[in-house]
Structure formats: structure tokens, C-alpha cells
Amino acid sequence: MASKPGYRQLFRTPGAWSFVLPGFLARQPFAMLTIGIVLLVQHTTGSFGTAGTVSATTGVAMALCAPQAGRLADRFGQRAVLIPGALAHAAAVSLLIALALADAPLWALMLTAIPAGASVPQVGPMVRARWAHRLDGGPLMPTAAAFESVTDEFTFVVGPVLATALCTGVHPAAGLVAEAALTVAGGLLFAAQTRTAPPAHRDQLATTGRRGTSALAVPGVRVLIPAFLGIGAVFGGMQVSLTAFTQAIGQPGANGLLYGVFASGNMLAGVACGVIAWRSAAHRRLPVAYGLLALVSVPLFFAASVGSPVLLGAVGLVVGLAIAPAMITGFTLVERLVPAGARTEAFTWLTGSVALGQAGAATTAGQLTDAFGAAAGFAVPLAGTALAALAVAVLRGRLVPPPSRPVASSLGTPADGSARGAAGAPADGSARGAAGAPADGSARLAQGASAGDGPVMTRGAGHRVPVAVD
User: Fold this and answer.
1) Where would a tag sit more exposed on the chain, N or C end, judged by fewer CB atoms within 10 A?
2) CA distance 416 to 227
3) How far is the first Cα of the chain from the last one, in angstroms, to the nearest whole number?
4) What's the pLDDT score for residue 141?
């Protein structure tokens, strides 16, 4: 399928625009929250270390609660989780703003940051679940998965730049005010689209006698979690360090521009990854992608030491270009390694890992900046990506998908939820060939599929992913 016809057909899916647009609006807070906290708290306290600590508290709470929110959404439905979560988040952020402007002590800011992070709506995984529900494991599912990956990248272009521009050009609290408003508006609008929401599975144990499989039971997920911590370390380290760098050179307004250049590289690489026809399997590409990311992070400290925003911007662009291949390849592996019934939880573990890595990096970069100067914070992205690359390289064997692994949900039924015939017919009702065609009835790629990838399809955008994605 060519990439252009594929995307045209994708957006002709009934109800697609009704959740794509609100979903994009509602996921912006994920990229705005930490930078908004850093800019506000640094303004009120004068300390990057304090700002990073508060931001880190938010990120830890988000990382710990995101997988639980994913499981609750699968069990009770997205609307039941999203509406109270969005309202609670806006209330917590509003209280955090008020306390920061009132020069509240650090413990009060940290205490308020916990519910602010814990209640961040997990809209990205919810949108992916809606695509899977609407497309029912059809041939457009890989195209939808690629589109969501690029949308995630674009979020990290728009969100931090918008928050920085508001904080530096309007008011130090304006970024968080906008973040809370977008959470409520986007969240409520997204939750209102009940026609496209996947059904709740609250009766799973009663009807099947089996509990859903946890994503953490998959060894590959336990490797991807620390790998995505490294990606978060880049985002968090860059946000704090670029803020400190532009203030040190007397050009605080350049912060948004420099971060925008970095994030734009991330997005452009994401678009490019979507049109490349990869010849190697995702589990082989991931160690290379992380090694490259660690390598290009080395010049950040030296570019900042020179004091040239142009040089630092150029290096930041290269770092941004190296993030997308690592992130998209990791998400692609989730779709191959994890049973359909646990993929929403798996996605939230990875997005939570990014948030946790971002929070820890913001704290560390802030402390280094306060102690050793603006350039010191840029050592954090290098350290984080180097450790992530080491973990991926050492544990890469756990990222290999099981050979000829059937694509099944945690309910013990086919991934698209349809009934299997008594004679063992494929779940989609198509005829099984005598030569052992895939269980979902789709055509297996005859050339270029590496051993162990399981049933896969090829699309014009270049990713080979399982036919059924939850």
C-alpha cells in the first residue's frame, strides 16, 4: 500500500477526526507540564535545583500512576477515567500555581506536585486503543500506529515551545495556566466522543475466569522501560539546561527558539522514519539507534561551554534527529512483543518512563547548573542515553519477538475480539491456507521479514508491525 493512499484511507475511517483532533489537544499537557513547572518555580525561587525537584516530583507521580490509569481505562472505559482525571489535574495545577506565586516552601510545592503528576490524562495510549477498536485489526492499523508515533513527536515540538513562550512573554505562570486549560478542554472533548471508544472489560474475570496479562510479564517491556528513561533524560536535561544557558548569556527569550530547533529535529526524524522501508528487524535497529543517540549527545556540553547559541542550536538539532528513531522503534517493538490485551498498559509504562526520566534529569541538571554553571547540565542527556544504550545492548536478546507468535489478546481470544470457529478457522473468518497462512488471515510478507517478528504486514510508511494493535 502506498503511503499517501494509506493515510487518505486512514482518515476516511468513520469517526476518526472526532478523536484525532481532541486527542492531539488533550495530549499537549504531557509536554507542557514539566517545563512550565521549571520556569515558574525557578522564577519564584531563583533556583534551578528547586525547580527541578518540584518537576521531578510531578514526573515520578506521573510515571507511577500512568500504567494504573491505563489498566483502569481498559476495565471501566476511557470516559470514566478521563473526566475525573482531567478535572483533578486542573485543580492540582491551579493549587500549585497559587502556592508557587505565594512563595510557599519546597515541601508544599512537592506535596501539590504529586496529584498534579498522578492525574495527567494518558490520552496517547487511549487514542491508540481507539484506532485499534475502529479499524478492528485491519490493514490500516500499521498506518495508524505510525501516525500516532509522529503525532507524539509533534507534541514535543508544540508543547514545550508554547509553554516557554507563554512563561517568558506573558507571565511565569501562563504556561501552566494554559496546560490546565488544555487538559480540561481537550480531555472533556475527547471523552465526549463515546461512539469511537473501545468497550470496557470490567467483566473479564467473571466471563473468562482469567485475569488480564500484565505488560510487565513480557521481558522485552522490562528492557524498554529503562531505555525510555534515557529518552526522558534527554528531554528533561535539555529543558532545564537550555533555560539556564540562555539566561547565562543574557538572552532568555532564545530559550524557546533553541528548544524548538531541538524538538523540530525530533519531529522531522519521526516523519522520515515513517517513510523508510526498513530492511532490518526492529530489535536489531534499537541498539544502533540508542548508540547513535548517545554519540551525538557528547558535543552538547562542549557547545554550551563555548557560549554560542548558534553552535548549541546546531548540536541540539542533531540530538533531536537521533531521538525519533529510538523512540519509534521502541513503540514498534511493543506492538510485536506484547499481547493485544496488555498493549495499552505497555504504552503507558513507556510514556511513564519518559516522564520519570525527564523528571530525574530535570532535578539532576538543575543541581549541576546551580553548582557548576549552565554548561554542566548538558552532561545529563549524555549520561542518560549512555546508560540506556548499555542496557539495550546487554539485554537485546529479550527484545526478539517469539518465533511465529500468535497475535492474541489477554482474554484468550483473537486480538480483534472476534470468535474463533470450532474448526480452528482464523479469527477474521478468512480461509486458512494449507501452507500455514497467518492466523489473522492477512498476507505474510514473503521478502524482508526477519525471523522472530511474528505475523507482520508492510505499509508504505515503512514500519512492519502486527496486524492487530491494541
Assistant:
1) N
2) 29
3) 21
4) 63
> What does the alpha-carbon distance between residue 226 and residue 229 come to, in Å, rounded to a whole number?
5
β-bridge pairing 457-458 and 464-465: antiparallel
Handedness of CA 231, 234, 235, 236 (dihedral sign): positive
Question: 26-65: b or e for each residue (b if 16 or more CB lie within 10 Å)?
Answer: bbbbbbbbbbbbbbbbbbbbebbbbbbbbbbbbbbbbbeb
* Residues 410/213, Cβ–Cβ less than 8 Å: yes
> Maximum CA pair distance of the chain?
74
Asked whether the beta carbons of 407 and 440 are under 8 A apart, the reply is yes
Report mean pLDDT in 10-residue bins for the chain, 470 residues. 58 86 84 88 88 85 85 83 93 96 94 92 85 70 71 78 89 94 91 83 52 76 92 89 89 83 83 72 90 94 90 93 87 76 79 82 87 90 94 90 52 39 40 40 38 40 37
Residue 106 identity = L
pTM: 0.70
Query: If you search the block for the grid coordinates 482469567, which residue do you land on?
Result: 210
CA distances in angstroms from 31 to 35, 41, 71, 120, 396, listed in the order given: 8, 17, 22, 11, 29
Of 96, 131, 98, the C-alpha closest to 114 is: 96
pLDDT for res 329: 84
Residue with cell 530535570: 362
pLDDT at site 37: 93
Ramachandran angles phi, psi of 90, nearest 5°: -60, -40
